[in-house]
Amino acid sequence: MLFNLVDDCVSVINDQKRSLGIVKPGQVVRYWLADNPRYGEMFQMGLPLFTEHDQVQVKRDFPSEPRVQYRCQECTAQQPHNQQILEWGFYEWLRKFPEKAEQVWDNAGFTKPEFDLYFLVGNQFAYRNSFMVISVLRFLKAKGPETKSMFPYKKYDEERLQRLLDSIDNE
Q1: What is the pTM of this model?
Q2: Is residue 34 within 8 Å of 67, Cβ to Cβ?
Q3: Which of 33, 87, 130, 142 has its CA at 20 to 30 Å from residue 67's CA atom?
Q4: Are 23 and 117 in contact (CB under 8 A)?
């Protein structure tokens, strides 16, 4: 099913004025734990009676942030995409095992050639042209070529959507 949902490039998602999309990196240029420029600036208060501690850690409360630089399989961007990874599992690993921080890349499948990686990417309301990796989707590589899903779902392109709207108007 994922095959029908994958976009060619983050730039295509942005050009279509969409907030979310899935891309398959054709080349991961690098991945690293960057210094978090907002570390120590703010904290998230917990709700009374619902949290054990006075404050809850959020991504800004970590000294480093996971980042990835990549080119999409059908990349139309001039430069590789350089994005922060927001996936909860990355931050949980950093919280629970700070002494093994670099192992987060093994856990996510970045260092394992038997996995295909896909990125669920999204932008922010205030920064609509700036995308982040919301989640890293990892699957064991298919033994043969990728095939279309047996489900007939396909993304609507503008032309198909317009034909659908025209047919509704004509009824």
Answers
A1: 0.76
A2: yes
A3: 142
A4: no
